[in-house]
């Protein structure tokens, strides 16, 4: 059974924890979303498609860097030209 002292301690701990809580509506610290009196802030986020394209491009760039370090420059240049010709043929 909770005594008034236990309730007081629990309330103080909850208030102390709220300092580290971020509201999901206004993105400010110190209160819960249901207590919020502020306006909702717009937070621009890239679409999932854009994130996937970016990750794919980064992966391709890493692969190219690995190939550059593995192959001599003239071999890499030949391969790059070959890929460009394939791309032009597809169009």
Secondary-structure blueprint:
Blueprint: H1 4-18, H2 48-70, H3 73-90
Short description:
Helices cover 62% and strands 0% of the residues.
Structural features:
91 residues; mainly alpha; elongated; nucleic acid binding
Q: What do you see in this structure?
A:
There is one protein chain. The chain is an all-alpha fold and 91 residues long. It has 2 domains: 1-43, no CATH class; 46-90. The protein has helices at residues 4-18, 48-70, 73-90. The longest helix has 23 residues, at 48-70. It starts with a helix and ends with a helix. Pfam families: zf-CCHC_3 (PF13917). One of its GO terms (molecular function) is zinc ion binding.
**Tally of individual helices:** 3
Helix content: 55-70%
Q: Please trace the helix and strand order, writing H or E for each element.
A: HHH
Low-confidence parts, pLDDT < 50 over ≥5 residues?
none
Question: Whole-number radius of gyration?
Answer: 28 Å
Range of strand content:
under 5%
Mean pLDDT figure: 81
- Structural classification: mainly alpha
Number of domains: 2
Tell the overall outline: elongated
Kindly report how far apart the N and C termini lie: 77 Å
Number of strand elements: 0
Largest sheet: none
